[in-house]
Amino acid sequence: MAQSFETLSQLLEQSAGKFKDNDLFGTKQPDGSWTWLSYGDFAQMVARCRAGFRALGIGYNDRVAIVADNRVEWAAAAFASYGIGAQFVPMYPAQPPKEWEYILGDCNPKLVLASGGAHTEMQAIVARVGHAARVIGLDLPEADEASFRALLATEGNAELHPVTGKDIAGLVYTSGTTGSPKGVMLSHSNFCTNVIASGSRFEFDQTDRALCFLPWAHSYGQTAELYTFISVGCSMAINDEVPNLVDNLAVVKPTVLVAVPRIFNRIYDRVNKQMDSRPALIRKLFTSAIEAATAKSQGKPVSWLQGVSLNLANKLIFKKVRARFGGRLRFVVSGSAALSTEVAQFIDALGIDVFEGYGLTETSPVASTNYPHNRKIGSVGKALPGVSLRIDKEVTGEDKIGEIIISGPNVMQGYYNKPEETAAVLLPDGGFRTGDLGYLDDEGYLYITGRIKEQYKLETGKYVAPSVLEEQLKLSRYILNVMLYGANKPYNVALVVLDVDALKDWAASTGTTLGDPTDSEVVRTLIKDELAHYGADFRNYERPSKFVLIADDFTQENGMLTPSLKLKRRHVLAKYESALEALYSK
Fold it and tell me: Of the candidates 122, 78, 129, 123, which has an alpha carbon nearest to the alpha carbon of residue 107?
């Protein structure tokens, strides 16, 4: 059924009316059980929150900021803000406090909500930036007047403010891989048209259930999980901790899942590790079945023997893997970064359809996606209804590849307080310059080949777009992370983060004395072979000729990954550039 809503408040109002008694949010309790909040009860919570905001003097076009992981209170505060015409500004708990301070200083919120220990930090930041913002603690007891529980107990006006699709719903700050975060201004119409268009590509309804673990502070999590699922009446269990994800999947038994490539890479790695310890006959059956399933999905003929292998593997192996996901998954959607073709084919072979999409914060975020009966593994699908894609080949001077330009109702209103940066990416016709490189095939499927800012030229004049190859090399079970390096150099080198636990298992199984894996010739030989194997489909000049081994992974905590898990190359280079440079003198 076609959906129709102009604002996010209308979205919730419609769903709360249609699905009043249905489960909406599931929350894991300390004893491991799950409790559920209905659509109707959540709508009442939002109304109480709206009244509390009004009592604090929050009104139209004011800003409400929050720093918290996904939780029911996060969603309630967001929809309460939308209902009074305020703008919601989410931040990540994993962000460095200096980024919180920058964001608060930039957007000047009137209210800041904070979870756990971030509450005290926020009070100090608000004092430093000199804003008269009120700070509310999400985890403080109700007796504390600065608690969210006390705010919900406020009596007063909970009526909706008249808001239109043109009004700004919130500022979603970019991760700042190349500088300070930018506040992307997204309107109610930006979000709502993207929800409606995305939802039209997939068939799910109130009978579906999801496990939500993408951060709602990112536009991908907001649109693809929170708003889209609410719009069709889905129930959503909120994942507590990433390490618990697989165990929670088995309990929640989701039917749909929105994820990022890193999750699928872990599954790929885990299953392959398990296969290594199985008898040779099982390993051969597994490999043969994967090949048969891939051929079948590509429309290629499958022999009788391959069909037998596939049926047998499905009963003995694949069914058990699907059970780890709860056994009910109909499909998963992947976005945020490039998904390896090898991994996509692997997950698909297990009997779980994977649909990869593409977008940016500035496009609310979905611009294109594969969807049922319209899928090409390796692509990021076709443009959403109402969205158009074109390729600016003048940027590269090539016949096929160029910068991707997106037009449509999902394109942002601009960067807050940054007119020059806005003018640099928004074209007079409303198109948005993504900074991403790609091409369209004859059927309109989009393929991503790299990012302009990350692309560099070797001394030989050859261009390298590192991120796609980096993702492929990380498929090695012995490599946690990798970064290519080679701008204006004769060849590429790499910084390789070792998976020390995997290497210990390998050493034990092969009788190898490991020692310090970052200074082991045996490990160097192993990694050299892994880089050659997983980089085999790339051009010779793209593959690293030499490498540095390290054991400390790139994380948000050490400042080398953004909250959306993108690599902060300049931060990595600040620590390791001298070691990479030394490779050219050896």
Answer: 129
Asked whether residue 586 carries a pLDDT value surpassing 80, the answer given is: no
Partners of 235 in beta bridges: 209
Structure tokens at 518: 């970052």
**CATH number for the domain formed by residue range(s) 456-582:** 3.30.300.30
pTM of the shown model: 0.84
For residue 377, the 8-state DSSP code is B
Number of residues in the chain: 586
Query: DSSP of 363-423, one letter per residue?
Result: GSSEEEE-BTTB--BTB--EEPTT-EEEEEGGGTT-SS-EEEEEESTTS--EETT-HHHHH
pLDDT-derived band of residue 2, with 50, 70 and 90 as boundaries?
Answer: low
**Quick one: pLDDT band at residue 176, thresholds 50, 70, 90?**
low
Tell me which fold the domain 8-224+236-241 belongs to: Rossmann fold (3.40.50)
Contact by Cβ (8 Å): 253, 328: yes
- Which residues are bridge partners to 28 per DSSP? 34
Which of the four pLDDT bands, split at 50, 70 and 90, describes residue 179? low
CATH superfamily of 262-327+329-451: ANL, N-terminal domain (3.40.50.12780)
Q: Which sequence spans correspond to the domains of the chain? A: 8-224+236-241, 262-327+329-451, 456-582
Report residue 493 as tokens.
């080198």
CA distance 57 to 447: 48
DSSP state of 298: T
- 3-class secondary-structure state, position 194: helix
Name the strands in the sheet holding 446-451, side by side, starting at the edge strand that comes first in the sequence: 388-392, 402-407, 432-440, 446-451
Give yes or no for residue 1 having a pLDDT over 60: no
Burial class (CB in 10 A: 0-12, 13-18, 19+), 36: middle
Mean pLDDT confidence for 546-565: 86
User: In whole angstroms, what is the distance from residue 230 CA to residue 17 CA?
Assistant: 12
CA 10 – CA 289 distance, rounded (Å): 48
pLDDT band at residue 178 using 50, 70 and 90 as cut-offs: low
Does 262-327+329-451 match 8-224+236-241 at the fold level?
A: yes
> How many CB atoms are located within 10 Å of the residue 1 CB?
5
Q: What tens digit of pLDDT does each residue of 97-141 get?
A: 888 999 999 999 999 999 988 888 999 999 888 777 899 999 999
Helix/strand/coil (H/E/C) assignment for every residue in 234-280: CEEEECCCHHHHHHHHHHHCCCEEEECHHHHHHHHHHHHHHHHCCCH
